Amino acid sequence: MYTEKLSKAKEGLTFDDVLVMPRRSPIEPRETEIKSVFSKRIKLNTPIISSPMDTVTEWEMAVAMSRIGGIGIIHRNMSRNEEATMVRRVKRAESLIIRNVHTIDQETPISVARNIMETKGIAGFPVVVGEKLVGIVTKRDMEFSERKEGKVKEIMTKDVVFAEDNIDPEEARKILYDHRIEKLPLVDKYHKVVGLITSKDITTRHKFPLASRDDKGQLMVGAAVGPFDIDRATLMEKEGADVIVIDTAHAHNENVLTAIKKLKKELSVDIVVGNIATADAAKDLISCEVDGLKVGIGPGSICTTRVVAGIGVPQITAIGDVADVASEFGVPVIADGGIRFSGDIVKAIAAGADCVMLGSLLAGTDESPGNEMIINGRKYKTYRGMGSMGALSKGSDRYGKFSGSKFVAEGVEGAVPYRGKVEEVVYQLSGGIRAGMGYAGCRNVQELKQKTSFVRITNNGLTESHPHDIRVVSEPPNYQLFQN
Ligand code: XMP
């Protein structure tokens, strides 16, 4: 029986065991498209997601990720209110249309308007009678007007330029530009002020053409919650999270399956669930109607699950097994953990993933919350597993909680090389994905998933794949080997 069990052992492959085969190609890397999906309703221009870890994703990382077309998932190793505040900060970082517009009545004394502008940091108001738009007054009107006394109506611009609600962003930009104005009030059919578009927000929008935005023009953000924390999940949805990520070390657990069915009834946003590593887990979770599946048991750079618990599936095999089931039901697959180079992303997608989640590659950037440190003259940032002693003692319950105050860790704490701005890191990763698509003759992510094949390689093949017989004296930004 046991020998049979051993002889039936499945072979598991990971990133370093395979390469994607080159193919006759009609396309150049610059012509490729890397847009993809994270969940059934969340589409991304860049198939990269930052991991919900307390040294990777807080609001700054989430804003940066969303601006470059990916998405950040805020970690949950903090109070519900703290996580809610972070979600709110991302949602408010940019918005095309301001909805809670500060208006001012035309009879207001100039001194009062000036005072509100200064204390609330407002640069200008649409002026109203009742709720109807009759003018606009800005800080500049105040500065250039001789009048210190009197009412707002005496210094406001009366022939105010306005637009109908739900104007197209491009049209709004044109009006702002043609009239050389900074604020465009939006009105309904009764001439009531219902919104405001500023040139600053339009400029920001133009600066980030790939950004992941919701239908109000706000940046998208995900929030991690534990499978049994309905209160946190509903709060995150209320604060505007676009997707909830159920964050557990083992999502193929019966209590988790029951909890997900409940959560599915409570929430209307998409629910992505992880982590799993088998086809059976994919089937069971898909029957709970999840909107995305996150794959990876133990491949992460900081993980010790496989050595502590003896459990896991090498990541390329895990992705393929889950994706075979998920693709039948149109459920997106996220490859989470173990990605060290852009080539690993190409392999993950060729194995069936729609996008990838990164920890270590993003933890060294300016936008991560980790601390900087210098080791042997080189700059690093702290990075730790959510199952490390440090994260567990701060409250993380993703791993290792049995009872009392002792923990059984499933992760380590350390530091990763400093990598500068997240935008630069993602630029290099996206370039690598496009290069891979060019070699494989694939125009887009769907073709990379479907039209490619793998070659299995030996350890010699792997040695040959990396630079060899040379002392590397200058590291390119997309090939930084870890140095002790
Ligand atoms: P990378 O390789 O990108 O992996 O650094 C990040 C992913 O690793 C998972 N993770 C852990 N897994 N113990 C584990 O076994 C841990 O302490 C731990 N912390 C994070 C997680 O899926 C993350 O996205």
Automatic annotation (TrEMBL):
It comes from the Archaea. NAD(+) binds at D247, T248, A249, G296, I297, G298. Its EC number is 1.1.1.205. It holds the Pfam family CBS. One of its GO terms (molecular function) is nucleotide binding. It catalyses: IMP + NAD(+) + H2O = XMP + NADH + H(+). Pathway: Purine metabolism; XMP biosynthesis via de novo pathway; XMP from IMP: step 1/1. Mycophenolic acid (MPA) is a non-competitive inhibitor that prevents formation of the closed enzyme conformation by binding to the same site as the amobile flap. In contrast, mizoribine monophosphate (MZP) is a competitive inhibitor that induces the closed conformation. MPA is a potent inhibitor of mammalian IMPDHs but a poor inhibitor of the bacterial enzymes. MZP is a more potent inhibitor of bacterial IMPDH. Keywords: CBS domain, GMP biosynthesis, Metal-binding, NAD, Oxidoreductase, Potassium, Purine biosynthesis, Repeat. K(+) binds at G298, G300, C303, E464, S465, H466. InterPro entries: Aldolase_TIM, CBS_dom, CBS_dom_sf, IMP_DH, IMP_DH/GMP_Rdtase_CS, IMP_DH_GMPRt. The active site is at C303 (thioimidate intermediate), R398 (proton acceptor). GO terms for biological process: GMP biosynthetic process; GTP biosynthetic process. Belongs to the IMPDH/GMPR family. Catalyzes the conversion of inosine 5'-phosphate (IMP) to xanthosine 5'-phosphate (XMP), the first committed and rate-limiting step in the de novo synthesis of guanine nucleotides, and therefore plays an important role in the regulation of cell growth. PANTHER family: INOSINE-5'-MONOPHOSPHATE DEHYDROGENASE, INOSINE-5-MONOPHOSPHATE DEHYDROGENASE RELATED. This is Inosine-5'-monophosphate dehydrogenase. It comes from Cuniculiplasma divulgatum. The lineage of its organism: Archaea, Methanobacteriati, Thermoplasmatota, Thermoplasmata, Thermoplasmatales.
